[in-house]
Amino acid sequence: MLQEFETSGMTRREFCEQRSLSITTLDAWRRRQKRPPRLVEVAIEPEAEQSGSGFVVVLANGRRVESSWKFVESELLRLIRVAEA
To answer: Could you tell me if 23 and 51 lie in one domain?
Structure first.
């Protein structure tokens, strides 16, 4: 949608009115796009070395995610991306 706005030639107000979108939402998306992504190194321990079952993830913003569920690595990475958003 941001690319659509940039190529539309419309003002922010015109674009947002046409799509029933608030200007503050569009501006927030634009600010987020300009920020470089924050990447952190993550170490995944082999299952044999983990104590107990499940996992604990402490996010950069201080949030803590604990679970006894078993995840496939790709599912866990998706969960982390969603939690950090």
So the answer is: no
